[in-house]
Structure formats: structure tokens, C-alpha cells
Amino acid sequence: MSQTDTQHPTFADLELLSEVSQLLTLLDLDRVLQKVISLAAKAVGAAKASLFLHDEYDVDWGHIFVTRDLAPDEFFYVVRSVLDKGLAGWVLRHRQAAIVYDTDVDDRWIVFPDDSYEVGSALCVPLVYNQQVLAVVTLVHPEKNHFTDYHSRLMTIVANQATVAVRNAQLFNRLQAQQRQLETVLQAIPDVLLVLDEHGHILLINDAAGDFFGDTNPSLVIGRHLADFSENALAPVLEALQNSTTREDKQWLFEVRSERRKKDFQMTLSVWRDALNDLAGYVVAMHDVTTLRDLHRFKDEMLRLASHDLRAPLSLIAGYSDLLSMDIDPTLPSFEHIDVIKRSTERMNGLLDDLLRVEQVRRSPLELNEQVDLGALAAETVHDMQPMAGSKTQQLTDDINTDGMPGVVADPALIRRAMDNLVSNAVKYTPENGQILVRAYAKKGQFHFVVEDNGIGIPPEHLNRVFESFYRVKDDRAANVSGFGLGLSLVRTIIERHKGEVWVESEAGVGSKFGFWLPLPEQH
Ligand code: ADP
Predict the structure, then answer these.
(1) Which atom of ligand 1 sits closest to the CA of residue 471?
(2) Strands 408-409, 446-453: parallel, antiparallel or unpaired by DSSP?
(3) Would you say 519 and 445 are in contact if contact means Cβ atoms under 8 Å apart?
(4) What pLDDT, in 10s, does the model give residues 373-432?
(5) Rounded to two decimals, what is the model's pTM?
(6) Residue 515 three-state SS
(7) CB atoms within 10 A of CB 345
(8) Which of 392, 394, 425, 474 to mutate to test the pocket of ligand 1 (most atoms within 8 A of CB)?
(9) 417 in contact with ligand 1, CB cutoff 6 A
(10) d(CA 284, CA 142)
């Protein structure tokens, strides 16, 4: 039943529209929604109004404004029924306004038994944004045929304005929530974090950064230039900012020590970009590595002690046990005891040798004055390891394909040591009659050296730790294999000092593949 529409806009209608447009200045979503229903009710002379806010997937139960008092369980039941079968649900699905001229004959109007308020007619309009219904406003009146098409059109205009206001407030709420989330994350991070603009002014800091500057009040730090702080640890950042003319995406890594704080830091400096992908500034993250550095210093001191203080008494023990064994009848049990002492001192000497070798490789300058033929080194390694493999009746073969490969400036003794270690490990950790293949080849500007065995393999949880010093995998099949867990750490040190990389792939019970690559000189 439609009515003829003869109404024209009144001054009050225009005033109302101006009031609606003021909604745009509100940022509190609840206030916007409350105001939308009160203005809507006023606009069409409705006696009561309600609003459902609908988000992308479901009804936002926190934002349902109804004028009736409902108990929570009743509330859920009423709202669900209205949205499933009632007028609001119809408008939600059809995305257009609807009028119920007479609630007695239109079955979209659901009457609940405890309704104290008599409804004669109703008008319902959606707030549509981007083809999505954001909210639905229902207006009711006790008389039948109260609402006209004019009301419906007027409400559609009000709804359009209100949509923008609701959207605004929603976005603002979301931004605020995101900002709070970001701040919580920033403060929870124990590392020192600074966000700088492109000139080096501080835009944002976390608590740890406040402590670092000795100023827990961020407002005293924010806005100042990094150079205003007499903090020597920041010097590399200032230098990088001055030199970063290329404006490319880059990350710098520094090891710094703050003399004022007496702390060591590992510092990363990264570029951040704005929405247009222009350089907007930098993020500085400083991780406190003081304990680690102290441990390294302690380890260095221990190694120094080991080399000097342990060497002398050990050689005395070795010398005197040699003398003793000369005086003793070899058939006596004490002769056997002295032999155990001799073998133990040899083992201790071996450990000292290994330890000092790793330290030496780490510290001493590389002998880089030779063009080394890496293919020939690989072939020599395989050749020299044949007796060791033979003693376990293993098949040690090679596949060396380095013809035409340029010589590489490297320390040949060290590279040879790295190759030896990988091949001898393959022999050690492969049972008798096993197979070992050594491959060497050039590919994409890199020299590759790969040792493949069908030995005991390494379970996945140990794989990324085998290159650490003193790390050994506990495996019954290798119980008799001697070693200190230093070989692979030495290999890694050697290869990384030559700007290459080591890697491993392995499967327990199937075999292992250890390898490294080294950069080849560019060929013109
Ligand atoms: P070491 O052999 O003296 O123990 P390494 O540093 O050379 O020390 O090796 C560390 C550990 O890695 C070894 O103890 C062993 O558990 C494992 N590993 C190394 N090479 C192999 C291999 N080819 N197959 C299986 N396990 C290996």
C-alpha cells in the first residue's frame, strides 16, 4: 500500500540535514550512533528508533541501540529474530529502505509477546558503504500509515551523511587501536628502538631507549636531533645518515660500545618509507650484547691461560711418564698405568692444539698472496684421505669439474684444512664399506665443494648446531669416534673469512651432505 507523496522539504528538514552533517566532526563511534538515531527519529517524527551496527561478517553485538529494556538472553533472541525474519533483516539483505505501512498485515513486522509498545507503522533504512551495509536504523510510530515515501527519501539522505560519519569514527577507532597495539609492542621489546625522520630527528622511542638516553620522559627526547646527544655509540648512525645519498633500501649492521653506559650493542639501522615509497626516515634497533661480549672476553682469557699455563705442566707430565716407563719392567701392571697417563696427556695436548688452531684462524691475518687452484686442492684432499677411507674399506671417489675455472686468491693451507675436515668427518661418521663422493665445480661465479656420504646422518634438531664449537651429536653408532666438536667450527671460520658459506643437509640413518662455496673472481 503506497501513499501519494506530496510533501516538500521544510525549513526544519534543512536544519536537520545541517545537524546531520555536523556528525562528521565527531570521532567517538558510540556518540555518532546515538546521535544518528535521535536525529533520524526527529526527522520523521518517529516515536522510537533502534540501530544495528553491522560489520563485515556479522552483527556487532556491542553496538546495538534499542530503546526497549531487554534482559541479555531476551536481547539475543529478539535481535536474532529481527535480523533473520524481520524488517531489519529484509533491509540488510536488500540494501534498500522499506516502509511497513501497517504492522498488522506486513509479516516482516514481528511482534514479541512482552512488547509493551504498540507499533502501527515502521520505516527502516540501511547505511550503505561500498556495497556493504554498515548499519540499519528502524523507526516506529504507534499509528498506521505514519511514514511516507518522502520520509523514506529524507531518511536515505540522512543515512548517506551518517554513513560517512560512522565510517570516519570506525576508521579513527581502528587507527587508535592500532596505535595502542604498536605502542604496547614497542614498549614490550627490551631492545633500544628509535624511529628517526630522514634528517635524524627522533620521532618515536620505546622505554628501553628512554633508559638508554637516561631520560625516561620521552617528551624530552622526541623531536631532538641524534647529534644533540653526546653518545658515542650513535656515531655510526650519524655517519650512515650523512653518507646515505643513494636512498636505496638498505640495512646497516654495527657493533658498538657505549662508553657512558659501559655496554656493548649490536645495532641495526633500516630505512623506512612512506605510502608513496619515498624515504621517510630510519629505524634504529640496538640489542644489548654486553653479556655475550663479556663471555667472549672470558673465553679469550681462558684460551690464553690454556695455551701458556696448561702447556708447560702437560709437557712435564708427558716427559716424566716417558722417563718412568723406561725404568719399569713392561710386564708389570704399573707399566700399563703409565701408558694410560701418556695417552691421556696426548689427548689433552690434541685438544689444546685444536682450540688454539681455531683461535689462531679467527685472529691471524689470512695469507692471501696466492692464486689458488681450488680444483687441484680438492683432488689432493681426496688423494691424501684414501688411506683413512681404506682402513674402513670405504669407497672414496671424486668428481672434480673445475676446468677453465679462474684461480682464487685464498689461503691454501686453510682451505685445504677445511676440505680435509669435511672429508675426514665423512669417513669418521660413515660405517665400514660405506661410500663417500667428493664433488668440486664452478657455478654462477662460485666454487662449490660438496662431500656426500651414506653414513649415520644427523637428526634434524641438531643440524643447525653442528657448526658451533664443541657441539657433538650423541649417537651410539659414533660412540667410539674421537673428537672435540671443533672441526666444523674451524671449517666455518675458514670459509667465512674467505667470504663464502658452509651448509649441511642430512638425514639420520641415510647420510649427510656437507659443503661450502667460495666467491670466484669476476671474469671479463
Ligand atoms: P668432531 O668430529 O670432532 O666431533 P666436528 O665439529 O667436525 O667435530 O663435528 C661436529 C659433529 O657433527 C660431530 O660430532 C658429529 O656428531 C656431526 N657430524 C659431522 N660430520 C658428520 C657426518 N659426515 N655425518 C654425520 N655426522 C657428522
Answers:
(1) 10
(2) unpaired
(3) yes
(4) 999 999 999 999 999 999 999 999 999 999 989 889 999 989 999 999 999 999 999 999
(5) 0.52
(6) strand
(7) 19
(8) 425
(9) no
(10) 66
